[in-house]
Amino acid sequence: MEVVLAEKCGFCAGVRVADKLVRLAAAKGLSGGILGQVVHNESVEEEMARLGFPTVSSLSEARSHAGRIVFSAHGVAPSVRAEARSLGLVAIDTTCKFVTDIHREIERSLEAGFFIAILGQVGHREVVGYTNDLDPGRYRVFYDLAEVRSFDWSSHPRVKVIFQTTINAETFSEHVTEIRHRAQETLIADTICYATKENQDALRVLCADPSIDAIVVIGGLYSKNTKELAKIAEESKRTFLIGVAAELDQETFRGMRKVGVSAGASTPDYDIESVVTALRAFGS
Ligand code: SF4
């Protein structure tokens, strides 16, 4: 069985930096708590814990981990940074540069009097980081088109549209059209991350290949961008969404001649390599 790896897949630049910053700290003998997973991937989470940086669910928990807290690539709200300072915690901030840019964009847009329409998932850590400290009357997060349609736009004539970095732009194009119709002035901030788009585009190339029988997408349980990849693949191919190579079932691939592989932006190289190796072994 031939195994084809998507030309672009796996760790994005932001996640590579976050991963590196924690490793550098560990190499210096430091330890600390990571607020939520440093990236949405269980393999990385376990490895970080082995390096002395376990996941913690609150700032106060980090006190018992050398008083050091790591903010993930998803970023946090300014109030969380302030609280960490007030607790005397030392922060290692791995917030992705693109996420920081969006925080600034929102700040500038609010100052300019815009209502913020965030297209993304309520409760996603990146989105919580943007919205946690905002006046609830100045923004709204939309995921379903029906929510955009039923929202009362009459008191929001000027709207700035912000995208969660990892969403699929095509899924939300109708949302944008709808907002344009309803608001008097709509400005779009193109905040979808290029890394996500590159992984999606490379996957589409595999999906367009008629000789590929199935696609394996590798990524963490909570990785939104991995799920988006699986969704794209499912439209045209038999798709398997897995976390690690051990989840592959050889029987399922019997008779297949060519399998494509892609991975989310938070999937480490070693998980990708082990899946590719396992699939190739199935065919030998
Ligand atoms: S997917 Fe994009 S925005 Fe998110 S961490 Fe990676 S580079 Fe940054």
Describe what you observe in this structure:
The chain has 284 residues and is an alpha/beta fold. The protein contains eleven helices and twelve strands. The chain has helices at residues 13-27, 42-50, 59-62, 78-86, 97-111, 125-131, 145-150, 173-182, 194-207, 224-234, 269-282, and strands spanning 2-5, 33-35, 55-56, 68-71, 90-93, 115-119, 139-142, 158-163, 185-189, 214-218, 238-242, 258-263. The longest helix has 15 residues, at 13-27. The protein is flat. It starts with a strand and ends with a helix. The model has no long low-confidence stretch (mean pLDDT 94). The protein binds iron/sulfur cluster. Iron/sulfur cluster (SF4) binds next to helix 1, helix 5 and helix 9.
Percent of residues in helical segments? 40-55%
Strand-residue fraction? 15-25%
The DSSP helix count reads: 11
Low-confidence stretches: none
Second-tier CATH architecture of the largest domain:
3-Layer(aba) Sandwich
The radius of gyration is 21 Å
Structural class: alpha/beta
Report the principal-axis shape: flat
Helix and strand element order: EHEHEHEHEHEHEHEHEHEHEEH
**CATH top level assignment of the largest domain:** Alpha Beta
The oligomeric state of the chains shown is single chain
What is the tally of beta strands? Answer: 12
Bound molecules: iron/sulfur cluster
Query: Mind describing the biggest β-sheet?
Result: 4 strands, parallel
CATH topology of the largest domain: Cobalt-precorrin-4 Transmethylase, domain 1
Major sheet strand order:
1-12-10-11
